[in-house]
Amino acid sequence: MLSIRNLGVRIDGKPILQGINLEVAAGEVHAIMGPNGSGKSTLAQTLAGHPDYLVSQGQVLYQGQDLLSLNVEQRAAAGIFLAFQYPVEIPGVSNIQFLKSALNCLRKQRGETELDALDFLADVKQKMRQMQMDETLLYRGTNEGFSGGEKKSNEILQLLVLQPQLAILDETDSGLDIDALKRVAAGVNAFRSPERALILVTHYQRLLQYLVPDRVHVLQDGRIIRSGGAELALELEQQGYAPDTPKDSEDAPNQAPEVSDDDG
Amino acid sequence: MTMAKRFCELQAHAPPYSSGWPWLNAFRQQAQQAFAALELPTQQQETWKYTDIRTLSETAFSDAPPPGATELAQASSAQQTQALNLPHHRLTFIDGHFQPHLSQLGALSNGIKLMPLRQALEQEQVLIENHLGSAVEYPGQPFAALNSARLTDGVLLYLPTDCQLSQPIHCLFYTPSGRHSHISYPRLLIVLGPGARAQLVEEYLGSSAPPANAAAQCTCPLSEIILAPDARLLHCKVLRESPQGHHIAGIHVTQAAQSQFHSINVTLGGGICRNDLQVSLCANGAQSRLDGLYMLAGRQHLDNHLRIDHLQPGCRSEVLYKGIIDDRARGVFNGMAIVHPGAQQSDARQINKNLLLSESAEIDTKPELQIDADDVKCSHGATVGQLDNDALFYLGSRGMDQQTARALLTTAFAHETLTHLPQGPLREQLTALTGATLTRQAGGEPPDALPHG
Questions:
Q1: Which candidate, A26, A221, B121, B198, has a CA 20 to 30 Å from the CA of B5?
Q2: Is this prediction's pTM over 0.90?
């Protein structure tokens, strides 16, 4: 579904990602872990299409098409969703208005008709119950004055309503207490299906107890230095992202610098 | 030739409407003298620093004649298709001339008086003598003096004690476009007795598609609002003139104890526009909420000058003005709250927020406080910014195209000023009207047409 090849990204001229390679197949869950400043959020924002992140090298194929040639809303229409680490507060745009505008824009881009207002509301409310969210949040400004947990739950509500193909969750677990974490994880698990894929960007192993990944990757200094199965997350939890992490581990992916950007 | 000189010359000829009522003649004459003694404002004066009215004072405006068939047809069509749809009580004017056939003055109970001012000058002389001019002082207000000197028609609204009107009164002033430059001086006198409640809308509407050679027009209205103890007025002004429609207006308010004045001042179109809104909080417990929203585009110029005098203790004023300025348009905001000596426990707040959507758009904002009492709560602030890129990215990441995202954000910014309006047709229509204007500015299609019954 997603194929990242030798991706390099700069912000304000400074290299942040330096040759990322990652393959994500439909149905898979990948966790990207790593210390602060390793480039995890940059990867997430770049995939979503943030204009400040300049791709300096490499290629990203999503469902066979060149993802980097699409702007942010085209990527959303193609089925990519980023759950923000810091969801933006938008006073004056109610949550329900936000969801409705987003869904109708997505449907329009896909050549589908607008959803019936009543059906839409019923669907949103059902998903809010699933997330154990207070319905009054629908009529407040989007994320305006929401608690940390409410903001993260709201991101997952959007995920459930907008039904993307590839969801990237950027530190969705940060700042959540254990109950909120379980609710968020349950929401994400409800999203999972053999046709969909998930990339979890996280600092801690905690979330991965509830959302078990197929693959775990360790990002450091803009490169994936290790990859492994779900057990790698546990190991990292016990040992930290210590500098003695073996750089030539058997689990390390083939960093294949020969993959060039004229490929395909 | 300045407008002042020209005006004095015009006075040498017979005035357009002469009254057999000596009081009124004296009232006009006194105002004329006051006007003649005042120079027309220039940018040398602090209160007119950012507003250049030379193009106005150099235009040979003549008093607008009564409308012909063409103007009537224009106005009738505009009333049906463009104007707010508040049909319960409506007074429609064309170039300042009252149009009974376009108006709706249903039966009103309990001694309510709602009529064209011209009729009131004949029939309600005691009321007029007691109130006309009582909320206005001419020094520093040449256009208020000019309006008084030239006043011929407008609106009288009088509500006796404890009388309540549930439906808004709609005063529609239509400015037709044409090849000659005309000026009109509508006057509104609004008097609410103790405990009375009303809503009044002043809408100034110009041609939506003026011809390329349309001449400049000018409207110079003055509203006097006098609120008795515990009276409550919602006053809404909507300015939608064509780019050739200039507008120099005053709204002067005096408030007695426990009275509440809520003003919502919406500007969507016009040429050179100026609003002087002056509120005197004259007795304990009087409250004013002044909300404003302006969306300027093209080469429009809007100057909102607010002055709130806290004359007695325990009064409250709250100002929220927000503007969205595009193209080469320019906005000016000046809000002055004065807490007079002895006006303890005054609560005065002012906020002016602006969004600039283009490099050439401009805002000059200056909220001011002058405090001569020590036990007060006062605050003021102003912001100028662009649309939040993080928010635009967030909306984009959910599939919204740039036009939709921009329209959504600007609309959300703007509509904060409408949140204090009571639910009802006025709020709904202002929301739809401003939303459609913003969506159009953002380059998209308006979501829904303005509902018309």
A1: B121
A2: no
